[in-house]
Amino acid sequence: MESLWDQSCANSLNGDLLLERVYTSRLLGQETDLVLHGGGNTSVKAEIKNFFGDLEEVLYIKGSGWDLSTIESAGFAPVRLTVLQRLAELTSLSDSEMVREQRAAMLDPYAPNPSVEAILHAIIPYRFVDHTHADAVVTLTNNSEGLARVKEVYGEQVLIIPYVMPGFILAREIRNLTKDVDWHKYQGMILMNHGIFSFADDAKTAYERMIYLVTLAEEYLVKQNAVQFAEATGQTDLLTLSKIRQAVSQVKGTAMIAQLDQRAEAVGFANLPNISNIATRGPVTPDHVIRTKPIPVIFPSDQQADVTQAVNQYAENYHQYFLRNNPGDLKELDLSPRWGIWPGYGTLSFDQTLSSAQIITDIIEHTLRAIQMGEKLGGWQALSEKDLFDMEYWELEQAKLGKSANTPELRGKIAVVTGAASGIGKACVEVLAKQGAVVVGLDMNPAISEIFNKPGLVGIQANILDEKAIQEAIALTVQKFGGLDILVSNAGIFPASETIENLSQDTWEKSLNVNLSSQRSLLQSAIPFLKQGIDPTIIFIGSRNVLAPGPGAAAYSVAKAGLTQLARVAALELAADGIRVNTIHPDCVYDTGIWTADILASRAERYGLTVDEYKSRNLLKQPVTSQEVAQMVAAMAGKLFGKTTGCQLPIDGGNERVI
What we know:
alpha/beta; L-fuculose-1-phosphate Aldolase; Rossmann fold; 3 domains; eight-stranded mixed beta sheet; seven-stranded mixed beta sheet; 25 helices; about 40% helix; elongated
């Protein structure tokens, strides 16, 4: 591992200790082999003036919720050093008491909560303290020969501490073990099965000691030929992927994203002949158990086997694990897995949001390497089940369970919207995403890939008339997120006004093809995956013309009437599979691409009205916006319409002919 220290950058900090702490913390955070997603912590001891101008010694330590890779000065909690040192002298202190006392000792009440390792950082007699969960170091310690390996690599350069639960217990243990230790003999400290500390009185030395110590472990692993990982080419079985995601969601009790990793290393790991053994011994570091649970679900290698049964068995095993270790007063977490091994296909991560699933995927990437290296060193060996349980059911984690949070209703749901580049379709994508869904928007406009181009919001260019393109877009949705729950059929055209007498064959066929026939192929592509969705629903965007057609709109009205009939039949056929099918009939929606100035003028003329009179021709004299239609779509996708199917709902400001 290379040092990223830049002396010119360091010089620009003018000796400001907190800015130097921010700088080296970010250097550590850039290395994913050191720190993953909020892991690790850093601190600096400084003397500052308090509100009264008196000098006080404080420990600036990484605050809860901050990531080392992006941390700023505001991310460090200033805690009175003397209070932390006195807390370390106590014989007992619960975690909740520790959090309360640390919070009370802060100089800034608006700063984030200090790390649970604040007391430990306070008793280490150096100004700068760095702590990471370096893959190479934890790989050495998570081994049947871990202690001997650490001593072989480091000799007398580091203190070696047996695993102890993080927080006060760990700080107290280290205080007792180091009472008569000359800290200046050591460059760092190894916490078995947990991570590594480095320390010094200046930022550069502390940082470069971390790099040096981790590099020793990395070089040792190379010499032991432990860094060659299995690789293979992944396959795709999207219907089974969708079924896996459905099973996990059902056990969890809410919709989950399923992120499939088919990179060569992930597939190779999943294909290892002893995968069921080595992957179920525990995580790389106990901190990971909060996100990943102790072990993954292992799916059968037999492609004909029931993946749902594998998830249900995992849930039962997890329940038994809880019963074995529960002292009697803990609240059981949900029974669903957070990651999985799928032989032949790769690894899977499960969570309610895409960002959380990606974090788990990143953790898995490092885990699979550490496990394989550990096996080559003598056998991968994580913490005991009881130690992992204590971490997963930590008092501080249990305290979070009682806190309510405003969860977006559609969180974890997966949606596809056609005709998404503008108007109602674009608004539907935006509203569904705001309510928590991941959304794929389809449109023939090539700009769609730029309009929606960020995690959880994807734009795909696809012509609704191109059956293969639609099939591929649906497949990509399932490949990317794990399934399909919501289909919004919005794509359509509004032909120029032509009376039946003058209606051209081209106008007639084009309207039928786009507004009706293409919807059949869309349904055929989506239904197999919707059958395995979570509270699946199909929502058609119809038209007021279905119930109250106007002259000159035969091609459009007939096609939309046919679409409505298609929706009614679909509601009858798909109810047994739990798929709801409903239709919204909008009108007076003029902020869409189909309502050009020419079309508005033509329609107004047809009715003998001015454009302004035409636009306010409904009973409420109010236009309807695309956003309002989209909000109705989102409502239909949610619990409010959970027992409604076959519905035709106007959103048109009131039309006397419809009424």
